[in-house]
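This section describes the prediction task in plain terms. A model, or a person checking by hand, is given the sequence of a single protein chain and must write out its three-dimensional structure as a string of tokens. No templates, partner chains or ligands are provided. The sample shown here is typical of the held-out split.
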Amino acid sequence: MKPKSTIEKGKRFEKFIATQLTEWGFGECRREIGSGSGKKKGDIFANLPFLLECKNQDASIKKILDWIDQS
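The expected answer:
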């Protein structure tokens, strides 16, 4: 189980990305509640033809490749 501060860090980043996408004209974008559970697999709901998965951390190339596999 993740520490609460880690979960909050992720939520803040998802909200930031959703706000930026909305401001940039991609339509209504919002953080997806309960992402990964059920049919809703992405972190952000948007009118885009693909899912958005957010990661807010410093990372090596290996981690980035793992995240691509996860997505």
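For orientation: The radius of gyration is 13 Å.
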